[in-house]
Amino acid sequence: MNQVYKCADKALYHAKEHGRNQCIVADIS
After folding, report:
1. Mean pLDDT throughout 10-29?
2. Vertex 19, ends 15 and 8: CA angle to 5°?
3. Whole domain around residue 13: which residue ranges?
4. How many separate domains does the chain show?
């Protein structure tokens, strides 16, 4: 479960860095 939070956190910061109104899909495979 910890891995899910790490991927979500990375996706969140990636979206914030690239502007507003972003939707990032994390691939946790």
Report:
1. 76
2. 10
3. 1-29
4. 1
